[in-house]
Amino acid sequence: MLPLRDNVPTRTVPVVTVGLIVANALVGLWALGAHWLPALRHRALWWCTLAAALAIVAALTVIATKPAVVLFLLVVAYSVSGYVQWVLRGRPGRIV
Fold first, then answer.
1. How far apart are CA 94 and CA 1, in angstroms?
2. Are 55 and 77 in contact (CB under 8 A)?
3. What phi-psi label fits residue 93: left (phi over 0), alpha (psi between -120 and 50 degrees) or beta?
4. What does pTM read for this prediction?
5. What's the CA gap between 11 and 16, in Å, rounded?
6. End-to-end CA distance of the chain, in Å?
7. Cα gap 31→15, rounded to integer Å
8. Looking at residue 30, what is its pLDDT?
9. Contact present, 63 and 71 (Cβ < 8 Å)
């Protein structure tokens, strides 16, 4: 479904791709740190998390050979994740 490589030689470094990967990694580390350190919990964290998620969705949709299938799978994954969180939050003593 997603192309892993091609035969077209590149002349430049993929700056945008590397930038997106680094930005997503930093936002992910910030979110993990905010789980344990209340000082890292800011409103900006949630906006950055939203931007990172939208960037991933946009990238998957653009590079996919069948964008409709990718969007459908992302919607299904989003729907299922909500139910998983709902079930796990209902258990006493569990931290999600």
1. 36
2. no
3. left
4. 0.54
5. 14
6. 32
7. 24
8. 86
9. no
CA 34 remoteness from chain centre? 17
In this structure, the number of other CB atoms found within 10 A of the CB of residue 27 comes to 19
Torsion of CA 7, 13, 15, 21, to 10 degrees: 60
pLDDT digits (tens, 9 = 90+) for 3-38: 677 777 778 877 877 887 888 888 888 888 888 888
Which position has the token pair 């910030």? 30
Q: What angle do CA 23, 46, 77 make, to 5 degrees?
A: 80
Instruction: Grade residue 90 by pLDDT with cuts at 50, 70 and 90.
Output: low
The set of residues, in sequence order, having a beta carbon less than 8 Å from that of 23 and lying 6+ positions away, is: 52, 55
